[in-house]
Specification:
The complex is a heterodimer of chains A (62) and B (239). By secondary structure, chain A is of the alpha+beta class. Chain A has two helices and two strands, in the order E-E-H-H. Chain A has a two-stranded antiparallel ribbon with strand order 1-2. The termini of chain A are far apart. Chain B folds into two domains: 58 residues, no CATH class; 154 residues, Sandwich (Jelly Rolls). In chain B, 7% of the residues lie in helices and 45% in strands. In chain B, strands 5, 6, 7, 9, 10, 11, 12, 13, 14, 15, 16 and 18 form a twelve-stranded antiparallel beta sheet that branches. Classes of the chains: A alpha+beta (62), B mainly beta (239). Chains A and B meet through strand 1 and helix 1 of A and strand 6 and strand 11 of B.
């Protein structure tokens, strides 16, 4: 995929090095987003299993 | 001799206009100067003898000032506690990142950055870096999910960017950031608020480097591209 880089009013195609950097960021972000989504899903599932809300859980834990 | 006017001349036909009268006329209007330095030099520097109430306009700061007998005071517009537009940048078509140069300077310590309008090619998470630096980024993110009111978190721990500072979708771009002391050779810190289809998000950011930066780059994390919209950078006036 060709990425376009804008610097002020100049728009150009990304260099090979910039493309590699963006692809690396993309992979990192995808991993990060999945981990955060999994964590949120697990938290919601636990609360659902316990039959309480997040606020109630916070109260229980003091 | 101060340029105080002692009379308001009323000329009659065939009267001689003297050099003194012409000088008084030229020196008592609202002269325009590029800076306070050129103004002071034009009025005679340390030897200046100005009437109280003498006016001037400074192009560098876009203010009208008056001489109070000892110093120049600003009439207006006042710059105290104001946001001053520093730079405007229109986002191009289908761009993966946008670098804004010459946004930060010694004039301001703190800045407010917004994007209005524009769209994303898909649902995109926007990252931000201080242009030229790709390490030492720390971030705490807090997302409050609309449907459950549950708060979930995420973080960058010495990352290559502040990975969550905005979002974009097919309707608009969400980007609103306050950034503190980017131009000072100190740690930079920032807060951003944004939204996605399921949550409202706050991100608190730190860049742990004692370096001065003049610009920033907003990126799409390779998730898509941005088209249109206007980036505006405002400086918080120091006064």
């Amino acid at each position: 995929m060709t990425y376009k880089i804008q610097i002020d009013d100049l728009v150009r195609d990304a260099t090979d090095e910039e493309t590699a950097t963006i692809d690396a960021q993309k992979a990192v972000f995808a991993t990060q987003a999945k981990a955060e989504a999994d964590k949120a899903k697990a938290k919601a599932a636990l609360l659902d299993k316990l039959g309480i809300t997040a606020d109630e859980a916070a109260l229980l834990l003091g | 001799m101060a340029n105080t006017q002692t009379t308001v001349p009323l000329f009659v036909a065939n009267q001689v206009l003297t050099a003194a009268q012409q000088n008084a006329s030229a020196g008592t209007g609202v002269p325009v100067f590029s800076t306070s330095v050129t103004r002071d030099a034009a009025f005679g520097g340390s030897n200046k003898a100005l009437a109280e109430g003498q006016l001037c306009y400074l192009e560098s700061t876009n203010v009208v000032q008056y001489y109070d007998g000892a110093a120049w005071a600003t009439v207006g517009p006042t710059t105290a506690s104001a946001l001053v537009l520093v730079k405007t940048q229109t986002i191009g078509t289908s761009v993966t990142s946008v670098a804004v140069t010459d946004a930060f300077s010694a004039t301001y310590d703190n800045y407010f950055i917004t994007i209005n309008g524009g769209v994303g090619s898909t649902d995109i998470n926007l990252s931000t870096i201080l242009t030229g630096s790709t390490a030492n980024y720390y971030q705490g993110r807090f997302a409050n999910t609309y449907s459950t009111a549950n708060v979930s978190g995420g973080a960058d721990n010495n990352g290559s960017s502040w990975s969550g500072t905005g979002t974009a979708n097919s309707s608009t771009i969400f980007f609103s950031m306050t950034i503190n002391q980017p131009f000072l050779a100190k740690y930079t810190f920032a807060s951003a608020t944004y939204y996605n289809t399921t949550a409202a998000i706050l991100s608190l950011n730190e860049h742990r480097v004692n370096t001065s930066y003049t610009g920033f780059t907003i990126g799409t994390n390779g998730m898509g591209s941005l088209t249109g919209g206007t980036i505006r950078v405002y400086g918080y006036a120091i006064s």
